[in-house]
Amino acid sequence: MNKERLIEKLSEANVRAVARLITLIENEDPLAEEILKKVWNKTGKSYIIGITGPPGAGKSTIVDSLAKFLVEKGNKVGVLAVDPTSPFSGGAVLGDRLRMTGAQSSGIFIRSVASRGHLGGLAATTRLLINAVELLGNDYTIVETVGAGQGDVEIVQISDTTIVVEVPGLGDEVQAQKAGILEIGDILVVNKSDRPGSDRLARELQMMLSLGDKKEWESPIVPTTATTGEGIDELWSKIKKHQGYLGKEKFKNNRLEKLKYELENQISQKLFTKKIVEIGDEEISKTSKGILNRKIDPFTAVDNIIKE
Amino acid sequence: MASKGKIRVLIAKPGLDGHDRGAKVIARALRDSGMEVIYTGLRQTPEDIVEAAIQEDVHFIGLSILSGAHTHIFPRVIDLLKEKDAEDIKIIAGGIIPDEEIPKWNDMGIEAIFGPGSSTKDIIKYIDGKNIE
After folding, report:
1. A57 and A119 housed in the same domain
2. Cβ contact (<8 Å) for B31 and A24?
3. pLDDT of A6-24, one tens digit each?
4. Do A144 and A290 share a domain, yes or no?
């Protein structure tokens, strides 16, 4: 598919074209940038739901049930599911789709995304991938992170509503007190609620939430059993509630904040690349040797180089 | 053809038999050779497989069938890819496919068939040899 044809097909919300654009973005192909420039005004129109949590918590199964539920309510839904890339081979087995057979047969667009070495729970290009999926004209885009650790909080930078999925049996209440992933949930889900310990986990989470300062939005805790779909309607009503809480103004402000952050990132990335090329390998090696031999400290060295 | 980047392969297990060990071994071997493998699991219909392959923008579909259902499934997948204007996605297959049928399937559009005893190295070599940019 050449560029013109791809743009034409994208304007018709053609699935193949959107899939191809996603590939181009993932590969950081310069063509992706050109195409996104042309279709940019058509993006940004879906409500973004982020789902994160530890490996095996049931994120994909929840996405499956939730996506199906949304479609039955007459919405159009797209799904991006991120799985980790092997740091050794660069390859990946992307298995989220395995749990999404229900969504798949409801005609929902699902794309498995490899993290390709990016840390934080997402792929580096995730935000642009969302924009690509939005060309299908969906009302909701659901983004599932890799099985996340305590520090993988990047999802909050791209979602309008962030859902953190927890399961019983992973640790005591001190885990719930720690900073990190639990703090970012606009909604906390206790999945596998048919298992022993789930009531206790819900109570511990509740306690954790009640200890802090009172917030404008208090994250609700929703018990689910994703495999049977139990609790999904409740989860949906909480998402709606959060969406209502944000209203037009907060929603816009949140997005603006995130865009500012993103823009800063992009600028610093571009300046960084430019500057590194300008400075050149030789200068970097020379200065590093100086630092190694304690001839110069790294702070002065950096100042010197940037001033040049 | 997707541009330079990772080779993406969809591994699917159509039909009703539940013997997915082979499919999993292949998925793992391809991963270890640096490819991105979308594993869709058991009991996939040809419609599911082709739709998934298009959404995932894969270069190859790998079908694992041990039940004899390939006589029904192969032609259906081939037709659906044609229908969806996605014939550039190549089909490879593994499992129990009688030797005497292989030339026929090759003619119809199954690019390569790897039966019992095939080495994962051969499969990787085959895919790499296709020179996906």
Report:
1. yes
2. no
3. 999 999 999 999 999 999 9
4. no
CATH architecture of B8-129: 3-Layer(aba) Sandwich (3.40)
Give yes or no for A89 touching B (CB within 8 A). Answer: yes
Nearest to A68 by CA among A140, A156, A159, A146: A140
Q: Domain for residue A255, yes or no? A: no
Hey, of B3, B32, B127, which one would you mutate to test binding to chain A, going by the most A CBs within 10 A of its CB? Answer: B3
| pTM of this structure | 0.89
A257 belongs to a structural domain: no
What residues of chain B lie within 8 A of the CB of A22, using their CB?
Answer: 57
pLDDT digits (tens, 9 = 90+) for A284-300: 999 999 999 999 999 99
Q: Do B40 and A22 touch (CB under 8 A)?
A: no
CA A193 to CA A61: how far, in whole Å? 14
Strand order in the sheet with A47-52: A109-114, A77-83, A140-144, A47-52, A161-166, A187-190, A221-223
Kindly state whether residue A153 falls inside one of the protein's structural domains.
Answer: yes
How remote is the C-alpha of A166 from its chain's centroid? 17
B41 touching A (Cβ < 8 Å): yes
CB contact under 8 A, A110 and B52: yes
The answer to whether residue B29 neighbours chain A at the CB level (below 8 Å) is: no
